């Protein structure tokens, strides 16, 4: 149903906006997000089983100065509350095979380190900038959340970018500590973390299944939160999570956290193997691990290991056993080392590596292209519009054409060179956007000076002021040859240094995100310049140790074949000259009658004799002086043929 049609003329451009009703509502405290479903999940060929693999979110929680004051200006009391919130969140996510590991707490007891106001969008923007520039370089982590004592305008109690987990720019969110019960802030933090993971709201039209009724709290990703607080995830959330992870979101979550960094001290039963523990399968009542004694955190019987993708039946898997397959064209596989029960930390291709038939570049382990984003928004058959669409539409600086928002929340105009990093412009596909009911179709007709019409299709999705518009080109998308979108600007891919990094791999490997070579099979890291088992110093050996015995056997067989070939040549050497000559006379007698040499030796044999040893009229005596050398060369040629035949 078309609600309205707006047209305006401006420099040869006609805008035609077709929309469904856009609204936000809710009387309870809510996270300001729109009603969108199955957002930004492109079709990929998936390999990794993301559900069975345990993910670990290394989380830092920051308390602002107002929260510090709210808790009686007691730093330890604040830390205790934040740790309790984190414990709840970890418990919520365990059912999704995700552990939330609290690796740091920070309390702003003197002054806020970034602007915290009642304007939620500005606060989120400032906090994410501070995290990227200050917090992340000081302490590596996967995600950071701000717990604030400030109440934002309206009913907003939390904000976070969607599908931003593990990114340096947007992996985080802000949460209001809105209840005396820490469970309230925990439910909101879990909700915002869910958006970082790519989870959308549980709206009625999605038909989500929730095992908790509304009067018992409902599910965590409901748009509005009330009492009692939700503690479980819906079927929609689980579906969104799997689709997001399979697409490549959350590449940093597959390594086990360094236990020394965990906040709260050592405890048998917390699920983390700490100093003095051989295993830890959680509390006694929840432990189902046959290899671990839950009471003592020690291994049972002859068990060598109890946890990890490289542990099977309480024993280590052989080196080279695949433990984490690649999930997309920008991801790299990992292999067991044979000495550690855990799979090596996840690695992927270096940012800026060409992908998708050279149509895109890898960024944070994902191959982003305009075409894939158009298909996501408009369905099969959609493709990017011509460059003039991006330039004309995105120069407007309004909701329908822009390069995002500035720090004040105003729409920014795109410079011509950055136009392909603004609002995505497409052609073809479905009649209306396929991403949900809150999507607006923006059809723009451009009238070039040379005549004709060009139709451009854009979208606007209402998500609230805190959310990046999914109608914007995603960071990491190729905007020109050798150029990539970063911070809404079309920048040279050389900023990543991928070509310099790949140069040290000797053409036999590719550079990973750790700036190390991932070598092809049969070549050894770190520089792929010698024979080996492939892989990288980060990923483990690509081939199993058993392959080494197979290689040794192959070498042995080859040597035996060579020795046999040499023996045969030696045995047949005397008969060789007789075969080459036509009659049954001795070799010397035959050579005496050769006038010239071509009458005695075939061309195939003469071709082996070095230049200068004979001419077309050469007589026998000159050749006889070199006969021994000729015989040696004939033997050498047969051996060479044997080698190449075997190889």
CATH superfamily of the domain at 32-255: Collagenase (Catalytic Domain)
At CATH's second level, what is the architecture of the domain at 32-255? 3-Layer(aba) Sandwich
Question: Helix count, per DSSP?
Answer: 13
How would a crystallographer describe the biggest sheet? Answer: 7 strands, mixed
Secondary-structure-derived class: alpha+beta
Radius of gyration: 34 Å
Percent range for β-strand residues: 15-25%
Shape verdict: globular
Q: From the 3D structure, determine the CATH topology of the domain at 32-255.
A: Collagenase (Catalytic Domain)
Report low-confidence residues grouped into runs of 5 or more: 1-28, 33-46, 545-550, 580-585, 590-595, 604-647
CATH class group of the domain at 32-255: Alpha Beta
GO molecular function: metal ion binding; metalloendopeptidase activity
Protein name: ADAM metallopeptidase domain 12
Subcellular location: Membrane
Domain Disintegrin: 265-351
Detailed description of the structure:
By secondary structure, this protein is of the alpha+beta class. The protein contains 13 helices and 29 strands. Among the domains are: 32-255, Collagenase (Catalytic Domain) (3-Layer(aba) Sandwich); 570-646, no CATH class. The strands form 10 sheets. Strands 5-4-6-8-7-3-9 form a 7-stranded mixed beta sheet, sandwiched between helices. The chain has a 4-stranded antiparallel beta sheet with strand order 1-2-21-22, with helices on one face. Strands 16-17-18 form a 3-stranded antiparallel beta sheet. Strand 28 and strand 29 form a beta hairpin.
């Amino acid at each position: 149903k078309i609600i309205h049609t707006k047209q305006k003329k401006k420099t040869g451009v006609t805008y035609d906006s077709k929309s469904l009703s856009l609204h936000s509502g809710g009387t309870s405290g809510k996270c300001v997000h729109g009603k969108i479903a199955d957002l930004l999940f492109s079709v990929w060929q998936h390999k990794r089983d993301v559900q069975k693999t345990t993910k670990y979110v290394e989380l830092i929680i920051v308390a602002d100065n107002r929260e510090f004051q709210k808790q009686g200006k007691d730093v330890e009391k604040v830390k205790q509350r934040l740790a309790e919130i984190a414990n709840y969140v970890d418990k919520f996510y365990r059912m999704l095979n995700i552990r939330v590991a609290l690796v740091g707490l920070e309390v702003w007891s003197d002054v806020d380190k970034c602007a915290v106001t009642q304007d939620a969008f500005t606060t989120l923007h400032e906090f994410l900038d501070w995290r990227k520039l200050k917090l992340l370089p000081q302490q590596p982590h996967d995600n950071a959340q701000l717990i604030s004592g400030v109440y934002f305008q309206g009913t907003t109690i939390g904000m976070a970018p969607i599908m931003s987990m593990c990114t340096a720019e947007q992996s985080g969110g802000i949460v209001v500590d809105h209840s005396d019960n820490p469970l309230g802030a925990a439910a909101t933090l879990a909700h915002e973390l869910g958006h970082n993971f790519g989870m959308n709201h549980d709206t009625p039209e999605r038909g989500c299944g929730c095992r908790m009724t509304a009067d018992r709290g409902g599910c965590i990703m409901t748009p509005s939160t009330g009492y009692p607080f939700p503690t479980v995830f819906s079927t929609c959330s689980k579906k969104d999570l799997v689709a997001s992870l399979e697409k490549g979101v959350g590449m940093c979550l597959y390594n086990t956290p360094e236990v020394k960094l965990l906040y709260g001290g050592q405890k048998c039963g917390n699920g983390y193997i700490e100093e003095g523990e051989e295993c830890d399968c959680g509390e006694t009542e929840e432990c189902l691990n046959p290899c671990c004694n839950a009471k003592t955190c020690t291994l049972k019987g002859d068990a060598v290991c109890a946890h990890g993708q490289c542990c099977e039946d309480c024993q280590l898997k052989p080196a080279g056993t695949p433990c984490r397959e690649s999930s997309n064209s920008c991801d790299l596989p990992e292999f067991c080392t044979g000495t550690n029960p855990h799979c090596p930390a996840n690695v992927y291709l270096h940012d800026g590596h060409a992908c998708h038939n050279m149509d895109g570049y890898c960024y944070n382990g994902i191959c982003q292209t305009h075409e894939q984003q158009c298909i996501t928004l408009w369905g099969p058959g959609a493709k990017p519009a011509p460059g003039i669409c991006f330039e004309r539409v995105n120069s407007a600086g309004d909701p329908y054409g822009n390069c995002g928002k500035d720090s004040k929340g105003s729409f920014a105009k795109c410079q011509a060179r950055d136009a392909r990093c603004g609002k995505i412009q497409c052609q073809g596909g479905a009649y209306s956007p396929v991403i949900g009911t809150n999507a607006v179709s923006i059809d723009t007709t451009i009238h070039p000076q040379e005549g004709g019409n060009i139709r451009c299709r854009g979208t606007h999705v209402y998500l609230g002021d805190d959310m990046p518009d999914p109608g914007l080109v995603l960071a990491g998308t190729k905007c020109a040859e050798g150029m990539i979108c970063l911070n809404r600007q079309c920048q040279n891919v050389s900023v990543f240094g991928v070509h310099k990094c790949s140069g040290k791999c000797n053409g036999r490997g590719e550079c990973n995100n750790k700036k190390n070579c991932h070598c092809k099979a049969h070549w050894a890291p770190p520089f792929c310049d010698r024979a080996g088992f492939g892989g990288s110093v980060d990923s483990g050996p690509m081939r199993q140790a058993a392959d080494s015995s197979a290689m040794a056997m192959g070498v042995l067989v080859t040597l035996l074949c060579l020795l046999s070939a040499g023996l045969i040549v030696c045995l047949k050497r005397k008969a060789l000259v007789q075969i080459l000559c036509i009659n049954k006379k001795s070799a010397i007698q035959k050579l005496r009658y050769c006038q010239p040499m071509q009458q005695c030796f075939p061309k195939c044999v003469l071709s082996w004799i070095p230049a200068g040893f004979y001419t077309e009229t050469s007589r026998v005596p000159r050749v006889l002086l070199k006969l021994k050398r000729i015989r040696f060369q004939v033997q050498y040629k047969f051996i060479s043929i044997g080698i190449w035949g075997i190889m």
